[in-house]
Design goal:
The complex is a heterodimer of chains A (225) and B (316). With 225 residues, chain A is mainly alpha-helical. Chain A is 78% helix and 0% strand. The chains are: A mainly alpha (225), B mainly alpha (316).
């Protein structure tokens, strides 16, 4: 039974990595949001599996809270505050073109695995730590890379939230008795962050007609009515 | 001993006979999902029969490559069938002739001759399609190599039979994250190699947009029949490698007995049917990519394969 749970946990690790790559690379804002929801669901699945394996209801609560806030509340908030047409936008170019972006993301994942390996060996880690910690670190680095590489505002926000997802993915394997206060505080933090960025995005879109955050670096003469 | 030779021959016969049926079912499913009726599932057999009875016209300007290519394209999938686990899970008589990398090269030989023949006929659309096929092919090469390397690294061998044993016997190997990523990378590879959507439109008739279909443009009569049949067999071979080695390595005959081997035939066809359903869903929900975006698609496949390699190398 324990073997089956750690196998399914390895499956969620793979899904988390795929979703993190998807957030870096997809052009459509709507698809980026779907990949983020997918990575949150795999994070919640991993938390539930680890909670069942180690009989810790803290982790089960972490999984449930993640299942409520990220796949459901967060898109709802975004849809209510940001205007609908932002979702239909596609980024034609990123800061670097997409194959180069993918190769850099690959280098980051290799770095994540490389840097977590000595630590895992020193701690004599079990199977779940060996899947979760490198995948979480990779998610963190890929989220940071998304913020730098993408031009639109909503994917940049999703990159920030992916960093938090990645940190949690590593954290649930390290600390089985995660204090619930920390998780609740972070969940509210996520929601407030989303709300603020969404309101800012809407205001930016009303004023300059595009949500490409790089366009804000210069002063302009006219504003859109 | 003789039974192993006979089973090997039965494997080849199964692939020869059932590959038009597999393509027929794929076409019919694709039409059904678009609310049309579609051709009957034995239509490819009728097409082959019709083409074998027709006259062949060969351009006088073409060289020996044009005449040899249909036979090469027909024979290379047959050779690869001898090496892979189609019906049995133990190695057969010719199974150690080449490993997976060798099988990949043999398939690439067929593709290479097809590309050369498309250029040979001096049809204006042939070289265009041929150069695009080569572009997709060289973008797919790194993915092939990395997938084979990862699969062999886990199994400590490159022979498909031994790889299949390693993936099927300990159940823990099936759920590794590297396995899932390898499946995704291999499906993207099959889509690229066989010219399905999103890489190419297999049912399109615009020569200006053809990528993989252009290899059969100039052929008629017997040559066209062999090119078509060879293409269908290559598709079935790639599908069988995916299903029997990576995805569902179960349902194959474990003992040297006629009953088990004959029972494995409908099981393999059932697995192929499931894969065809998955392929139809993928094809009907995506749009064809523009040509310069194919490199992004293949880099995504490459990245997935390399991450599978990293997570399996560092986890073992």
């Amino acid at each position: 039974m324990v073997l089956l749970l750690s196998n399914l946990n390895a499956l969620t690790g793979g899904l988390f990595l795929i979703a993190a790559f998807g957030i870096v690379v997809t052009r459509q804002v709507r698809a980026c949001l779907n990949f983020f929801v997918f990575s949150s669901i795999s994070l919640a699945a991993s938390a539930l599996l680890l909670g069942a394996e180690q009989f810790s209801w803290h982790l089960v609560a972490v999984g449930v809270i993640n299942l409520i806030t990220k796949p459901w509340l967060l898109p709802w908030i975004l849809r209510r505050t940001v205007r609908e047409e932002i979702y239909n936008q596609r980024e034609i170019t990123q800061a670097v073109n997409i194959p180069t972006s993918l190769l850099i993301a690959l280098g980051l994942v290799i770095a994540a695995y490389f840097f977590s390996l000595p630590w895992l060996d020193a701690v004599a880690a079990g199977v779940t730590l060996r899947t979760n910690v490198p995948a979480g670190l990779a998610g963190l680095l890929l989220g940071a890379y998304t913020i730098t590489a993408r031009r639109e505002a909503v994917p940049q926000l999703l990159g920030l939230l992916t960093m938090e997802n990645g940190a949690f993915f590593a954290g649930i394997a390290i600390a089985a008795e995660l204090p619930l206060i920390a998780e609740l505080a972070l969940a509210f933090d996520v929601l407030i962050l989303t709300f603020i960025v969404a309101v800012l995005t809407r205001t930016i879109h009303e004023h300059i007609g595009t949500t490409a955050a790089g366009a804000l670096s210069e002063l302009r003469e006219e504003t859109r009515q | 001993m003789t039974e192993r030779i006979l089973f090997n021959a039965i494997q080849v016969l199964v692939v020869l006979i059932f590959s038009p049926l597999v393509i027929g079912v794929l076409h019919k499913l694709e039409e059904i999902i678009q609310s049309k009726q579609g051709p009957s599932i034995i239509q490819p057999y009728r097409d082959l029969l019709k083409l074998f009875n027709k006259d062949e016209i060969v351009s006088e300007e073409s060289s020996w490559i044009f005449r040899v290519t249909p036979y090469v394209v027909f024979v290379t999938p047959v050779l690869v069938t001898l090496l892979i686990p189609v019906l049995t899970s133990y190695p057969l008589f010719w199974a150690f002739m080449a490993d997976m990398v060798g099988a990949g090269f043999v398939l690439a030989l067929g593709g290479f001759f097809a590309t050369l023949a498309a250029v040979d006929a001096a049809n204006p659309y042939g070289p265009m399609g041929a150069s695009r096929t080569r572009m997709v092919g060289f973008l797919a090469e790194p993915v092939f190599v990395i997938v084979f390397f990862t699969v062999s690294f886990v199994a400590d061998s490159t022979i498909p039979f031994i790889v299949q044993k390693k993936w099927s016997t300990p159940a823990a190997n099936f759920f590794e994250p590297s396995h899932l990523l390898l499946l995704v990378a291999f499906v993207m590879l099959i889509l690229a190699e066989k010219g399905r959507i999103p890489v190419d439109n297999p049912s399109g008739h615009f020569e200006l947009a053809m990528i993989d279909e252009s290899k059969g443009l100039e052929y008629s009569g017997q040559g066209a029949a062999l090119m078509k049949w060879g293409g269908w067999m290559k598709f079935l071979v790639l599908m069988i490698v995916f299903l029997n080695v990576l995805l569902t390595p179960w349902g194959l005959a474990g003992n040297v007995s006629w009953g088990e081997v004959l029972l494995a035939i409908p099981l393999v066809l059932l697995k192929a049917l499931l894969f065809i359903v998955l392929l139809t869903i993928i094809e009907s929900s995506l749009a064809k990519l523009r040509l310069f975006r194919i490199s992004e698609f293949m880099s995504a496949a490459f990245i997935t394969a390399v991450v599978a390699m990293i997570s399996s190398v560092f986890a073992h």
